[in-house]
Amino acid sequence: MSVEPGDSGLPLFDAHCHLYDANLLPVLDWDSNQSGLPLIGAHVINGTHPDDWGLIADYPGLGESRPLRAFGVHPWRVDDLPDNWEQQLHQYLSKGAVSVGEIGLDNWITPRDESLQREVFMRQMVIAVELGLPPSIHCVRAYGALLDCLRSGPVPKGGFLAHGFGGSKEVLFEFLDMGGYFSFSSYGSHPGRKRIRDAVRACPVDRLLIETDAPDMVPPEDVCQFPLISQSGERLHHPAELLTAYQRVAEWKGMKVDELAQQIEENFRRLFGHLESF
Ligand SMILES: [Zn+2]
């Protein structure tokens, strides 16, 4: 049996989450002395709109974990942006952010303005290149359009993160050639999400990252080790399920958890760690 991270002292790294979320904060009680909680080295906390960038800038961190900050406009939030959003984004990113996120394209949400999503995405990719920061990219049912954008526009030299990747293996290979990294959570344990598990298996280990997207993308109840319910009764993704994600991804990949944990830390530092040490 492999040594579990946390028990062996290996820290875990969450490549994408939203820990400032208003549903999560009132119900999340994180006491580092509580047994069973994993040791988390760092979280990359992503924004969705200028409305939440201030919350991220002020977020104090969770336990021993280092809060690393990403600011960006999510494709669901492109239609009510203030005129100076790019200027604000520049200012927030310039204060030690490690990523531009969460940005992307989404052809699932209705109603939507696809050309506006694309325009806001491309403008943020230009900013990411200018500042030398990797973007954290959301994509749902829009992989063709995203490939077009990545082929026609600038992509940061250090690469980009396809967060919560749910595309085909063919798309995965195209993204790899463009410098893509891929992050996965235990959401892929849902029986109908075989494509996610196939993508994990196809992803080279040096481009693999792990995330929770907490409090969203809740894994199935039978794999949850840290069940969490919001004040309004919805199931939330507990940030400690990062441990579950490491365990599931290791299983899908046929690796030992501690071997995976070492590789993930290396990948995480390569993608996000060029600005500062953590
Ligand atoms: Zn997200």
The distinct bound ligands, ions and cofactors come out as:
zinc ion
DSSP summary: helix tally? 8
Name the strands of the widest sheet in spatial order. Answer: 1-2-3-4-5-6-7-8
End-to-end separation in angstroms reads 30 Å
Count of discrete structural domains: 1
CATH topology: TIM Barrel
Order of helices and strands: EEHEHEHEHEHEHEEEHH
Identify the CATH architecture.
Answer: Alpha-Beta Barrel
| Poorly predicted regions | 1-6
Beta-strand content bin = 15-25%
The name of the CATH superfamily reads Metal-dependent hydrolases
Q: Structural class per helix/strand content? A: alpha/beta
Strand tally: 10
* Integer average pLDDT: 94
Mind describing the biggest β-sheet?
8 strands, parallel
Morphology: globular
Determine Rg (CA atoms, Å): 17 Å
CATH class: Alpha Beta
**Percent of residues in helices:** 25-40%
What would you say about this model in short?
With 278 residues, this protein is of the alpha/beta class. It is built from 8 helices and 10 strands. 45% of the residues are buried.
Description:
This protein has 278 residues and is an alpha/beta fold. It has one domain (12-27, 36-272): Metal-dependent hydrolases (TIM Barrel, Alpha-Beta Barrel). It has eight helices and ten strands. It has helices spanning 50-58, 85-93, 114-131, 143-152, 169-177, 194-202, 242-253, 257-272; strands spanning 12-17, 40-45, 66-71, 99-106, 135-140, 160-162, 180-184, 208-210, 228-229, 235-236. The protein has an eight-stranded parallel sheet. Strands 9-10 form a two-stranded antiparallel sheet. Helix 1 runs parallel beside helix 2. Mean pLDDT is 94; it is low at 1-6. The structure holds zinc ion.
